[in-house]
Design brief:
There is one protein chain. This protein is mainly α. 79% of the residues lie in helices and 1% in strands. It has two domains: 125 residues, no CATH class; 281 residues, no CATH class. The protein is built from 17 helices and two strands.
Amino acid sequence: MTNVELFYRFGVALALGLLVGLEREYSYADGSQERLFGGARTFPLIALAGCAAALIADVVTPWFLPTAFVAVSGLVLAAYVATAAKGDIGLTTEITSLVVFLCGALAYWNYLLLATAVAVAATALLSLKDVLHNLTRHISQQDIYATLKFAIITVIILPLLPDRTYGPLNVLNPRQIWLMVVFISGISFVGYVLIKVVGPRQGIGLTGLLGGLVSSTAVTISFSQRSQNEAHLARPFTLAIIVASTTMFIRVLFEATVLNPALARVLSIPMLSAAGVGLAACVYLWFAERTSERGEVAVSNPFELSPAIKFGLLFAAILFISKAAQVYLGNVGVYLSSIVAGLTDVDAITLSMSRLASEATIPQVIAARAIVLAAMSNTVVKAGIMAIMGTSSLRRYALPIFGLMLMTGVIVAFLIAG
């Protein structure tokens, strides 16, 4: 190792320690009730100590690093005992100092990316203290149990599922089906966590955006019902519903991009066109009548086991039906099956078409049109829900927008995407 490389690694260790130290210094200066264990000087020194200990362990004896770690841990323990005696029993900063020491060692061993990632993650956890505490206050015991059950089932069962196809049409792969369940549940979980972080009652437009990541149909039902008792908020409710529906188009495009980038390129034009109409309508509604009203949408934890299994079965059924429709009815069969599937769930048909197109079972253009038809079928369902459950003023605002999105997506899909 040259001196330049050695100095570079020590410099990285110093920078990572300084990053964490500055966060701790700022946290204490921001009114924290904890006593200052270490700040902008202590943490860089700890990182340098870790880097130097790794160097000595490499050159002199491998026992020096664990010995140094135990010594630093002893100092940290002594500092904790001193502060705990005065009523400060938190261990966050003390544990962080040990993490910084190990980051210094990783920097010497040239695991620079890993050391940086660990230090940044630690700094983020420290900075997001209030956000994380707010999240825990909004998480119920049922949320924890549901997430834990799904995580256990996924970790245990997924490796055991056979990675081969079954069935008369040779399209049902148990492991790939379960992977799709994990993928779509993860997207929904992101939206669910965001709702938990910002709280269940937020501005109506923001609720539509976050709710659209989980279920745009749930948003439509929620605000359509509310319009019966709060008719004067028809325009803000329309904003939430259109925002959620627009988010659905973006979500579908994201799913296709992850699974089949070639399909996503074909799909992007009609989906972004429909989303553009929705976005333009949202901008108009936002500036036409701003409101400080707050709304909420009822969403359940997407990591419940029962919905996950149902989605897996739905995905498998749509995959099989789409393949059968294409074999026996041609492209028309694919379109018909997509329209029917979109009545209940647009994610399952998106994943199915993405997989079939990636295997060259269905042409990319046909798959893209099928996904657009499913999205538009789902849009029709939401328009019907809003028309039945909402007030006349809500229908007056929302129906024309739904109609424009519907026509734009279908026309672009069949005239341009081909």
